[in-house]
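Lab notebook: predicted structure, single chain.

Context: the supervisor wants predicted structures on file for every construct in the current expression panel, including those that have not yet been purified. This is the next one on the list. No modifications to the sequence; it matches the entry in the shared construct table.
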Amino acid sequence: MKGKEFLGKRYKAERFIAYFQSFSNTYGTCEKLKGLYEEALAIDDIVGLSIGTRPDCIDESTLTMLQGYTKDYLIWIEYGLQSIHDRTLAFINRGHDVKCFKMAVEKTRKRGIKICTHVILGLPFEDRDDMLATAEAVAAMGIDGIKIHLLYVIKGTRMEKLYLEGRYRCLGQEEYTDLVCDFLELLPPDMVIQRLTGDPHPAELVAPEWSLRKNETISLIKKALASRDSWQGKRFSQG
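Prediction complete. Output recorded below exactly as produced.
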């Protein structure tokens, strides 16, 4: 309720999508999930659902249930991919491979369910070409939306150990800005860009410090696109 009040005041919003965000929100029986989804959809000003999950936590029965809601509501599924490179997914202990992601997308996209994917720029041992290969792969999959995240280092994680040992270098703000612009150029012009960077919690953040300045980073991305006469889809190729 507080979130709706804030968004209503800030953006004059009158209708909302219920966001099942943290963790996997398709991990459970259809009966349990149906109860959760329909509790949200029963609220008058809710016009749809956005369901965050993993490609290895979806099955045909859950997709069929969600497909039934598409007649009356806007339904999004958000699948975390992070990288198109299996070596990276294995290193970060993602728990699934690229093939699993592609299978989940294929099962979903013909059902009238919108698909959003999450990717991370700055993953360990990936260079610019590796990251842009992820953009090209995602662009070719018929995905409706994307959330682009910066990899930042959090206290108490394996990444913190790598960072403190000097085995991992965070992206700089200018470097990230340029990468996002390059990434956007490769995406289809009609893909919905739902996020351009992440939101680290200040108390948990180790590095980079600039990641806390989200609005500044978004402003830099907009300025960079303008200065280089660039736009989303500029280098997108359907063939």
